[in-house]
Amino acid sequence: MASFEDLGIDYEEKAFFFFYDILDMICKQYGFEFDNDKMLELAREIKQIVDNTAKYLNCSDRDDIKAQL
Fold first, then answer.
1. Distance of alpha carbon 7 from alpha carbon 66, whole angstroms
2. What's the number of domains the chain is made of?
3. What does the CA dihedral 61, 52, 36, 20 come to, rounded to 10 degrees?
4. Model-level pTM?
5. Residues 6+ apart with CB under 8 A from 9
6. Contact, 60 vs 66, CB < 8 A?
7. pLDDT tens digits for 12-53?
């Protein structure tokens, strides 16, 4: 529950940062190391893309928006 504190982010950010968890899981699964700061940076960029794209109410119905995601 408190793993977000070690990452320097708040709980809300961590809750949405399942992208970070996915990146971490892939690294472990395939046996390679990726810098923690880089994974956080990538997760933040993915979050920003999702936030910017999800502002459209019908994003789940529009193929062009799904393609962006």
1. 29
2. 1
3. -30
4. 0.55
5. 17, 40
6. yes
7. 676 566 777 888 898 899 998 888 888 888 877 877 777 777
